[in-house]
Amino acid sequence: MSNELKFRLPKVLPYFTRFGQHWRWNVKSLVSPHHALQERVRGKVVLLTGASSGIGAQVACELGAAGATVALVARNREKLEVIARDIRNAGGNAEVYPGDLTDLEECDRICRTIEKAHGRVDLLINNAGRSIRRSIKFTYDRFHDYERTMQLNYLAAIRMAMNVLPGMEARNEGHIINVSTVGVQANPARFSAYLGSKWALEGWTWVAANEFAHTNIRFSSLNYPLVRTPMIAPTKIYKYMPVMSVDTAVKWMLDVIITQNKRKLGIFGKGALSMYYLLPKTSESIVNLSYQTIFEDPPENYVSAKTRRRASANEEGHTNTIARRHQQDAE
Ligand SMILES: NC(=O)c1ccc[n+]([C@@H]2O[C@H](COP(=O)([O-])OP(=O)(O)OC[C@H]3O[C@@H](n4cnc5c(N)ncnc54)[C@H](OP(=O)(O)O)[C@@H]3O)[C@@H](O)[C@H]2O)c1
């Protein structure tokens, strides 16, 4: 590698093409989303992770009906088979590729198999995800919370992208959608592990979009609010809260597939972000207020701050007694 500073002429024409296409597809999505989706995905190969449940399962059926070949990825083969059968029965094309994406070599294997079977991947949707809702003070002895979320929500998604990007670059065409959350804008308490991984994913997506802007490869982030899927079922309080329906979440995803917009974010996310930049301390207090108000059961083996204080006071007392004894012996 030379230290010499080198420059080259940038390609700026693609910016204008992109500008024109951006408006064209946004108008199409608004006026006739059904036809626009068909036009966008007919004959294309879509690799969809997290296709066995929730948002992914329904998006898979919509893509199949619109004429895409859908490669369905998740761990549960049986659930994937049912969805693939539904798509085929409706006249679409779908194949299942079960695997655990937390194993990065499995990510490589799945991508290689799909590219071999279908020749390419035109659209990658990194939708598989796991969420953990737990206060930081309850994670001192649970570092694996952070490792698990990073492994699936960040590392697996990037690994999938690393596998399909060379083909997209060679064809100068492709789209990668990374599914994120409005938590990245609102930063609700108790989601440090989950949001850390989604922030990382968004950081990567943003940089990738900037680096590939002069090509025909696009990157999008979807910042969903709470959606009524199995993911939020274990949290009792969400049963009583107004949350987005899976149907609306699917419409959001299809809109991003059609428009290839950089980000899909609702009014709540925009409000939370503006509030943070305008009044950061006030926004922190509002989140903290809700954090303090809602009780959270500590995990097993949790040692509270009070117990730790008592233990350290006992230890200190014990050390002082020993020191006193040593001093008395010396006298
Ligand atoms: N629901 C919400 O409130 C909400 C809000 C914001 C963002 N999101 C995001 O939306 C996306 C979809 O979530 P959802 O609500 O539809 O959740 P979901 O119903 O729980 O679906 C999660 C999907 O990920 C798959 N998955 C989990 N672990 C996997 C692994 N190790 N390897 C391969 N696949 C794995 C699951 O399939 P298997 O179990 O068969 O592997 C399932 O298909 C996620 O990225 C999530 O973070 C959801």
Automatic annotation (TrEMBL):
InterPro entries: NAD(P)-bd_dom_sf (IPR036291), SDR_fam (IPR002347). GO terms for cellular component: membrane. GO terms for molecular function: oxidoreductase activity. SUPFAM superfamilies: NAD(P)-binding Rossmann-fold domains (SSF51735). The keyword Oxidoreductase applies. Keywords: Oxidoreductase. Residues 306-331 are annotated as: Disordered. Gene3D superfamilies: NAD(P)-binding Rossmann-like Domain. Belongs to the short-chain dehydrogenases/reductases (SDR) family. This is Short chain dehydrogenase. The lineage of its organism: Bacteria, Pseudomonadati, Pseudomonadota, Gammaproteobacteria, Oceanospirillales.
